[in-house]
Amino acid sequence: MRRKLVVGNWKMNGNRAANASLLAGIVAGIGAANAANAANASCAVCAPAPYLAQCQETLAGGAVAWGAQDVSAQPGGAFTGEVSAAMLADFSCAYVIVGHSERRAYHGESSELVAKKAVAALDAGMTPIVCVGETLAEREAGQTGAVVSGQLGAVLDLVGERVAQIVVAYEPVWAIGTGKTATPAMAQEVHAQLRAQLMAKNAVAAETVQILYGGSMKPDNALELMAQPDIDGGLIGGAALKASDFLAILHAAN
Ligand code: PEP
């Protein structure tokens, strides 16, 4: 059985004081949960790069992992403003989100670039959380399957035998930050398709790869979504900024 994974994507939110209180709330809530309750799920927060040191200082040695929201595909050098995978690893990041739809839309990131970022993360010992998802226009045009398989396929081509070391996140663009959630059946249909694509690449690995759902996951819909056979957790935006909501989703994952 795959372990559930709940990851908070803080996006460009927070400051030292707000992060301290959010992290303290999460840590206290997890500490209060009994051991059996925490047995089936892991969790992480993906913070803006300047606050990764704060995450490391606050979370090291505990049950909450941390990660980044993007990484450069380049190893280092004259790339002003970029952050390399080695730098993220230097702050003990366990995860890095790659290919979030906001990066694809606002920064023109192609699936080929996303694949290179996933490889950079793997090379530095981190787990890339590879985001895929269709826009509303693509869904309405019946292109969901083709879009997500193209996005995942580019990454699978480049990661080769390391497919077991990635996490996939299905995030329908129309559901992100909108309050509109894919129904559990709609999400499961896409997750099953992604699992089949992983299966075609490596049947053994496909059984272990966690496929998260993201897009307005909240305490009141998390349980039903994560009860689907191929939904292995959540990538949480808005609800990850409130400790009680994040903890409730983590609770649903258990
Ligand atoms: C996200 O940005 O990854 C996300 C899922 O956001 P939200 O939960 O706010 O829809």
Explain what this protein looks like in three dimensions.
By secondary structure, the chain is an alpha/beta fold. The chain has a domain at 67-233: Alpha-Beta Barrel (TIM Barrel). The chain contains eleven helices and eight strands. It has an eight-stranded parallel barrel with strand order 1-2-3-4-5-6-7-8, surrounded by six helices. Helix 10 links the parallel strand 7 and strand 8. Helix 1 packs parallel to helix 11 (243-253) and helix 5 packs parallel to helix 7 (144-159). The longest helix is centred in the C-terminal third of the chain and has 18 residues, at 184-201. The protein is globular. The chain starts with a strand and ends with a helix. The relative contact order is 0.16. The structure holds phosphoenolpyruvate (PEP). Phosphoenolpyruvate binds next to strand 8. The active site is at 100 (electrophile), 171 (proton acceptor). InterPro entries: Aldolase_TIM, TIM_sf, TrioseP_Isoase_bac/euk, Triosephosphate_isomerase, Triosephosphate_isomerase_AS. Residues 1-35 form the signal peptide.
